[in-house]
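This part of the workshop introduces the protein records we will be handling. As an example, a complete record with its sequence and its structure tokens follows.
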Amino acid sequence: MRSEDLHVAPVITWWNTNNLWATQKPTGPLIVRFDSDRYYSIMAGEDERSGGSLLYFGLNTPLPLATNLSMGAERGEYPPQMRFLRMARKESGVWVDIEKPFWYDVPLWLASGMVDSVEIAHNHMDQGGMIDNEAWGRARNRAQFPSPWGNGLWTQEIYYRILNCGIRLPPSAGSASGVLPNPVGYNRVYVHTENGLSYDAWWNGLRAGRSFVTNGPLLRVKADGHWPGYVFKGKDGKTLSIGLEAALDSRDPIERIEVIKNGLVERTIPASESVRDHFLGPIRFSESGWFLVRAIANVPETFRFASTAPFYVEIGIAPARISRASAQFFLEWLHERSSLIHLSDPLQEAEALKYYSEADRYWQAKIRQSNAN
């Protein structure tokens, strides 16, 4: 952490049937502070199944996966992940992170309302190259998202669809250091804290979205003087004009900076222009929506980038933009995933499928609530 200038880090000590604490108890605090303003937690854990991975932070003890989970031919489909997610949510101070946006159960987790962040800089983006697949998640269209950057751009496409459903989920990052060839904090989140750095202040800043994720460039963006996560408000019939300013530092050459509005590229600043301190705006809204800024480095072998968390815009009485196409995207994805649930025990299968039925109702309601294409 010192060598990488990292101030907050989780240590994953339990994962599925592996549990460091099965035969011992922590002998000290669960959150260790050193150098006055560096913190690491020792009780982080991961629940990884056919539907994908959820990361848990802030629990006092591991979830009881080791004694309940069978990782046989059905790849841990039972007991359902949702059972443990609901169990975790009974404990205060818990943070649940979607480890990759393309995992098959993302529509299910989003519908539950029990997740806090989603990794858009994840461990398929390695320091020296890409893991160029979606594993057992929802595969990308390789014609639309070709290698080697396709996995990274597909990741962000899904995240933009989440935001287009009116779901305000801050982006996060993870490196799988110790498992994959990444140093600690290669994929990381920078968070602006209001009154100095503490462990709780960092998490509060992340929840508020005052942050950017990166695996290389340092991208600091303000909109009319506000950090990401800020909610701009306007009146019906009036156009809101917001000025954007960016500061960018990068060891790698930058290919482009993009202003993303409601999931589409609103403006591109080519690499030929100076971006050290650059005025990117204004950006205008006559309806509710969101925007963010990303910078993509010219590194052919891996997807190296930075992205701010979103800024939000609320116009009139419609506080959120809900895209019918994006809600339909997740509904179809949910149906595709639920069709793969086949358990030998019919009672177990029924328990697993009930969560998908609940999620189906959520996405159907999103479609009815939609106010954009």
Notes: The chain has three domains: 1-213, 216-321, 324-369.
